[in-house]
């Protein structure tokens, strides 16, 4: 740590302790980076093993697919650093311009240990291959 004192800049090897409180997001969704005109707006768990994803499109009509993986609870706050290993991917589905589309994704989502957090990546045919238009973590039981 560097401080400015009467004798000028001073260096210290002391540890700086900052209090940190990690809490759940009230919206139950965490987003990685800026989004494109097409994005995941919400996701719920209507039944065991299904994530119901609401996709919003503020641009022109497109074709989209969604890839999903379960994320362990211990990775809730650093999920974006984890290598994405999708367990399911939907087939391409059309979405009209300036519209909302609901897509069901079969994934082991539940309300038990390590089954509530689902990472969803939205792919668009207008994006480069393997570059998601949106990347979110959703707590489906929140």
Q: What does this protein look like?
A:
By secondary structure, the protein is mostly beta strands. It has no helices and 11 strands. It has a single domain (25-139), classed as Immunoglobulin-like, CATH 2.60.40.10. The protein is 0% helix and 44% strand. Strands 3, 6, 7, 8, 10 and 11 form a 6-stranded antiparallel sheet that branches. A 3-stranded antiparallel sheet has the order 4-5-9, with no helix packed on it. A two-stranded antiparallel ribbon has the order 1-2.
The proportion of residues forming helix, as a percent range, comes to: under 10%
Strand content: 35-45%
Instruction: Give the radius of gyration.
Output: 20 Å
From the N-terminal CA to the C-terminal CA, the straight-line distance is 40 Å
Can you identify the CATH class? Mainly Beta
Shape: elongated
Oligomer: single chain
Per CATH, the superfamily is Immunoglobulins
Q: Count every beta strand, where a strand is a DSSP E run of 2 or more residues.
A: 11
User: In the CATH scheme, what's the topology name?
Assistant: Immunoglobulin-like
What is the H/E string?
Answer: EEEEEEEEEEE
Largest sheet: 6 strands, antiparallel
Number of helices: 0
Average pLDDT level: 86
Task: Please state the second-level CATH architecture.
Answer: Sandwich
Number of domains: 1
Q: Which spans have pLDDT < 50 for at least 5 consecutive residues?
A: none
Q: Given the helix and strand composition, which structural class is it?
A: mainly beta
